[in-house]
């Protein structure tokens, strides 16, 4: 998937990068809350692939497919299992669920986290 040692390290970097700047739903108790759209955009920036979506009781949930493998880095925000519809989504749809400042905040904070882990 990437130059990063493990997907676990990437997940840990994301958990640290998620903040109120990247989602107004963020909380220390549930750092992934509201981060799915912005995270799917940043993941696509880093690794390519495509963005998928599925309906949940809370709205549309976004995640990625990279090299044929489904990656949902924000599934921990959900309080129950969901049936994944795997409907194709566009960057525009994911961006409509977030904002440019939230996107830039997560992208910048994640880059800082990954750079600090590689040094």
UniProtKB/TrEMBL annotation:
Residue numbers spanned by region Disordered: 81-102
Pfam family, one: YunG
Descriptive protein name: YunG
Species assigned in the record: Phyllobacterium brassicacearum
């Amino acid at each position: 998937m990437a130059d990063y040692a493990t997907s676990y390290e990437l997940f840990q970097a994301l958990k640290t990068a998620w903040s109120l700047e990247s989602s107004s739903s963020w909380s220390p108790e549930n750092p992934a809350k509201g981060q799915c759209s912005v995270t799917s955009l940043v993941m696509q920036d880093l690794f390519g692939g495509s963005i998928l979506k599925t309906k949940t009781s809370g709205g549309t949930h976004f995640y990625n497919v990279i090299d044929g493998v489904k990656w949902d880095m924000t599934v921990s925000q959900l309080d129950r299992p969901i049936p994944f519809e795997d409907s194709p989504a566009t960057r525009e749809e994911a961006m409509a669920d977030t904002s440019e400042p939230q996107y830039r905040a997560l992208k910048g904070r994640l880059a800082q986290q990954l750079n600090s882990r590689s040094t």
